[in-house]
Amino acid sequence: INVGADHWDFASKLAFARGFDQKIRDMVNLKFYLKCPTANELDDLYLFVVPHYCIYEDTETSTVTNKPADSHLNFEIQFKIGNAFAKNGNTYTCDWGLSQAAQGDIHAAMARFCFGFEDTGATFSTTDFPKIVDWVNARDFANGTYVVKTL
Question: Mind listing the pLDDT tens digit for each residue in 131-142?
């Protein structure tokens, strides 16, 4: 999470990051699991997300120049009121939000982008995790039969 050159204080950065952390957990954890309909030593695999991110500052607001070398996705959070959300490669630029509700919408969009979605929907469904299902089904124990179910 790049906080840009807007110089928001640490408490604001931390609150925004914690809000994102909680939103992605609320959207996935204790909601979905992978079920194997055939006899298998691992019948149920629960989807549980533990976000990992770092907060860093970049002095240039038009491009991310200070991102960590191993980052997969970058979110540039602009400390301003609004609901802008734009994608450029693996970098997403968004506003801090107009209200708590707007921040929740931005956090939800960020969560969906983490799973490869271009839209800014507010939830996930059982059809939203094909890469995870494909990965599990490719394992030796899986027999290629796992499907996503809701709890």
Answer: 899 989 888 777
Low-confidence ranges of the chain (pLDDT < 50): 62
Give the DSSP H/E element, type plus range, for residue 1. none
Q: Would you list the DSSP string of 54-121?
A: --B--S-SSS--S--TT-S-EEEEE-SSS--EEEETTEEEEE--SSHHHHHHHHHHHHHHHTT--S--
CA gap 139, 85 in Å, rounded: 36
The per-residue pLDDT for 150 is: 93
What is the DSSP code string of 15-56?
HHHHHHHHHHHHHHTTTEEEE-SS--S--EEE---------B
CA distance 59 to 6: 9
Strand 44-46's sheet: what is its strand order? 44-46, 32-35, 147-150
Q: How many Å apart are CA 8 and CA 149, to the nearest integer?
A: 41
**Tens of pLDDT, residues 27-59:** 999 999 999 887 777 888 999 988 877 776 665
**What backbone torsions phi and psi does residue 44 show, to the nearest 5 degrees?**
-120, 130
pTM above 0.70, yes or no: yes
Question: Which has the closest alpha carbon to 35: 128, 137, 111?
Answer: 137
